[in-house]
């Protein structure tokens, strides 16, 4: 270095120091900004990872709850049937005769007479008057003998064939029949 470089004024030295500081400060600010961007990116990725973990945890929880609901449904199907939420009717139900119920259980044809007002009234009267534990021996169309409740045997005697019913009786029996 030439000797006259050491002969600088205080103002020149201050200016050089200021320039050096500004250059160094600019570099450090750029490095700081770069570090902040990297930190922000790392924080964003960490936040995304936590959010994905939370979503996965929530999805697993929902699946677990759904499996529990399905298991509960399998164990207690009646609890989830739609009729559980239907209000209870205050109307008195008229039950079919024992003969009609036996035929329905077997899948046999049931005459419309059982569903008419007269047939329902006969079933109501006969069910109260006879012992339900008593049976009678009856012969069916195929010639086979079987025991049926006495109430059903008695009801067989008063059945009106479908062809002899009036249209008014059929009209009243149809909604009960379905």
N-to-C terminal Cα separation, in Å? 117 Å
Largest β-sheet summary: 2 strands, antiparallel
- For the record, the count of structural domains works out to 2
Helix content: 55-70%
Q: Structural class of the secondary elements?
A: mainly alpha
Strand adjacency order, main sheet: 1-2
* Silhouette: rod-shaped
Q: What's the alpha carbon Rg, rounded to whole Å?
A: 47 Å
Order of helices and strands: HHHEEHH
Summary keywords:
178 residues; mainly alpha; 2 domains
Structural features, described:
By secondary structure, the chain is mainly alpha-helical. It has two domains: 10-84; 98-172, no CATH class. The chain contains five helices and two strands, in the order αααββαα. It has helices spanning 10-75, 98-106, 117-129, 150-157, 167-177; strands spanning 135-139, 145-149. The protein has a two-stranded antiparallel ribbon. A hairpin with a 5-residue loop joins strand 1 and strand 2 (145-149). Residues 35-63 are annotated as: Disordered. Residues 42-63 have a biased composition (Basic and acidic residues).
Present the secondary structure layout.
Blueprint (H helix, E strand, L loop, with lengths): L9 H66 L22 H9 L10 H13 L5 E5 L5 E5 H8 L9 H11 L1
Antiparallel strand pairs: 1-2
Helix pairs in contact: 2-4
In short:
The chain is mainly alpha-helical. The chain has helices spanning 10-75, 98-106, 117-129, 150-157, 167-177, and strands at 135-139, 145-149.
């Amino acid at each position: 270095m030439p000797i006259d470089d050491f002969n600088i004024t205080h103002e020149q030295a201050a200016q050089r120091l200021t320039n050096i500081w500004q250059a160094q400060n600019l570099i450090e600010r750029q490095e700081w900004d770069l570090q902040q961007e990297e930190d922000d990116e790392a924080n964003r990725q960490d936040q995304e990872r936590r959010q994905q973990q939370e979503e996965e945890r929530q999805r697993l929880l929902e699946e677990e709850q759904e499996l529990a609901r399905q298991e509960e449904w399998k164990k207690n199907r009646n609890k989830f049937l739609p009729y559980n939420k239907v209000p209870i009717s205050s109307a008195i139900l008229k039950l079919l005769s024992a003969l009609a119920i036996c035929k329905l259980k077997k899948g046999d044809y049931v005459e419309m007479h059982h569903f008419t007002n007269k047939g329902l009234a006969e079933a109501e009267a006969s069910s109260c008057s006879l012992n339900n534990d008593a049976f009678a021996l009856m012969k069916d169309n195929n010639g086979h003998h079987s025991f049926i409740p006495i109430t059903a045997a008695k009801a067989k005697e008063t059945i009106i064939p479908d062809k002899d019913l009036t249209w008014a009786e059929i009209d009243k029996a149809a909604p009960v029949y379905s």
